[in-house]
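Dear support,

I submitted the protein below through the web form. The confirmation email said the job was done, but the results page showed an empty box. After a refresh the structure appeared. I'm attaching both so you can tell me whether what I see now is the final result or a partial one.
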Amino acid sequence: MYLKITTTENMLAYEGDIQKISLPTEQGEKSLTETPLPMVIKLVPGLISYQNGSGTHTLSISKGIALIDTYGIRITSSMITQTPLKKLTELRSNQYLLELKLQKMKSEGNIEDISSLIL
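What the results page shows now:
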């Protein structure tokens, strides 16, 4: 299967042939070993794993979209990290802690403090 992964700013994270891919979806992890019928898959923040001739590779993504057709799989995400945390539970834990900090800042802080978290 052909795979191309890019950001919304057209930064190329991967392009080439693969044997297998796992995608994070709202229904859980979806694994593909061949290009199925054309479809669009909504991706949630998580880990994409793909296997090519040199082994298994993992990328961490924010939400995104996977377009699957007879040419292969094209994935676009707003943020892609090539050195992700090892476990999805760590990602979820970090997300939860950041959300708690933001809630606390909204209730106790001022706009400058909140802006400093974002920048």
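Response: this is the final, complete result; the empty box was a page-load delay. The mean pLDDT is 85.
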